[in-house]
Specification:
Elements lengths: L14 E4 L21 H11 L3 E5 H14 L4 E6 L6 H9 L3 E4 L2 H8 L8 E3 L6 H9 L3 E4 L2 H10 L4 E8 L21 E2 L3 H8 L5 E7 L9 H22 L5 E3 L17 H14 L6 E4 L3 H4 L3 E13 L2 E6 L8 H5 L5 E3 L7 E6 L8 E7 L7 E5 L21 E4 L1
Parallel strand pairs: 1-18, 2-18, 3-4, 3-11, 4-5, 5-6, 6-7, 7-8, 7-9, 9-10, 10-11, 13-15
Antiparallel strand pairs: 2-12, 12-13, 12-17, 14-17, 15-16
Bound molecules: pyridoxal-5'-phosphate.
The site of pyridoxal-5'-phosphate (PLP) has 18 residues, from helix 10.
């Protein structure tokens, strides 16, 4: 059996560039408040030019999300984009150009970030199952490693040739809950060291030769649109850091608060108030004058979701025993998140209005798991074009792209 490397690694994602001039009306509404990065005319023009199904991304929207967040946060908060939310090289270039750091969770992501040629100290590496080769790669790249347990610490100690500062990921006992299970909240978890195990782990870690725990990493809840909910978790983490500092003498350079900054997936959901988040973090830093280091945020969804739109045409409509199935060119091979979370992406049928009635969106795959959501939609016919918004994060990257061997959708960058 051939290794991944022999096969040339993961199949390249097709990329095309579209100039803004070739896509009339590509401007989007106020960043963070529009569920669709492109207006209807632009969506139709993109489908016409590039064919469907297709992912289209708007660079200025991605840049604006980063800049809004950067402007709202105190200088002592570093932003490390969570590559897993969308690892496309064009997007990484946008954020690198604006000064972002990067949070990686595999050797593949580390390689993508290495290709950006960033200065030392701007790459982080987390993950509950790091292989030896990945740890060595991260060290060679100068990435700051988030150790997830004793095994990581021990292996790093063996690999290091001199003093090595690492962050320790802790799985909190309380204070980080999420309504839709994505990271897992505070239940049993594969991530980090369970908080109650900390004293014994720190005692063992004090005997390591090279590794020094000089940072704390806590992330247990994703897609939080309430600044207050985020801040209350962040306050819990600062409290934990203070205890580690006082009771175990840890000299913390970094406190990584993880990602989790949420986005709306429907018109009825209010966006995260990033200014309130920034003010709250400023107050938190002031409340912890003992901590002289930097805070890290690792947002993925918040930075990449709103720049992406997925366009797919209707292939068939079938009424079956009282259910209207709208069968599209793409399904869970392109967008898996609705099936995983039970939450559909926002959808509109382009150029169609009229009375809405319930529909089940299905893909072309031979499984009844191939569903993109249930929602009221107007009457549609084969050839009609649907646009799915907010797919820039956990969209194509999270899908089952190989399943049933349909062609991969091109990914087009605009602006
Ligand atoms: C360690 C880590 N950091 C950051 C993120 C990004 O989370 P989000 O997209 O919710 O901001 C994730 C998501 O799984 C993660 O596992």
């Amino acid at each position: 059996m051939k290794s991944n490397t022999e096969r040339g690694g993961p199949p390249a994602r097709q990329t095309r560039s579209a100039s803004p001039s070739g896509t009339p009306g590509s401007a989007q509404a106020e960043p963070g408040h529009s569920l669709f990065a492109f207006d209807e005319t632009t969506c139709c023009a993109l489908a016409q030019t590039h064919g469907t199904p297709i992912f289209a991304y708007h660079r200025p929207t991605a840049a604006a999300q980063y800049q809004r967040l950067r402007a709202a946060l105190p200088d002592r908060v570093r932003i490390a984009f969570a590559v897993k939310s969308n690892p496309h090289a064009e997007l990484l270039k946008v954020f690198a150009g604006l000064g972002a750091s990067f949070d990686c969770a595999s050797g593949g992501e580390l390689s993508r970030v290495a290709a950006l040629g960033l200065p030392q100290g701007m790459t982080f590496y987390a993950g509950p199952g790091k292989r030896d080769a990945e740890l060595a790669q991260a060290l060679a790249q100068g990435a700051r490693i988030q150790a997830e347990g004793w095994e990581d610490l021990e292996r790093l100690d063996a690999l290091a040739t001199g003093p090595l500062a690492v962050n320790l990921r802790v799985h909190p006992a309380s204070g980080a809950d999420e309504s839709n299970r994505i990271i897992g909240g505070t239940g049993p978890s594969a991530f980090g060291v369970d908080e109650e195990e900390l004293p014994s782990l720190l005692e063992r870690a004090s005997r390591l030769h090279h590794v020094r725990i000089q940072g704390l990493h806590v992330f247990a809840a994703s897609n939080q649109r309430s600044a207050q909910a985020l801040l209350s978790t962040h306050a819990m983490v600062l409290g934990m850091a203070l205890r580690l500092h006082r009771e175990h003498g840890l000299d913390l350079e970094q406190i990584d608060l993880g990602g989790g900054l949420g986005v709306p997936y429907s018109e009825s959901e209010t966006p995260l108030d990033v200014e309130a988040l920034g003010q709250g973090l400023k107050a938190l830093l002031e409340a912890h004058p003992w901590f002289k280091g930097e805070l890290i945020l690792e947002p993925g969804r918040f930075m990449s979701a709103s720049c992406g739109v997925y366009l797919a045409k209707v292939v068939r409509v079938k009424e079956s025993r009282g259910t209207r199935f709208i069968i599209l060119e793409g399904g869970v091979n392109h967008l898996l998140r609705p099936l995983l979370t039970g939450e559909p992406f926002p959808v509109k049928v382009l150029g169609k209005s009229g009375a809405l009635r319930p529909a089940t969106l299905a893909g072309p795959l031979c499984t009844s798991l191939d569903r993109l959501g249930d929602m009221p939609l107007p009457e549609v016919a084969p050839g009609d074009l649907l646009a799915f918004g907010t797919v820039g994060a956990y969209g194509y990257t999270e899908a089952m792209g190989e399943f049933l061997s349909h062609p991969r959708p091109p990914e087009v960058w605009v602006g």
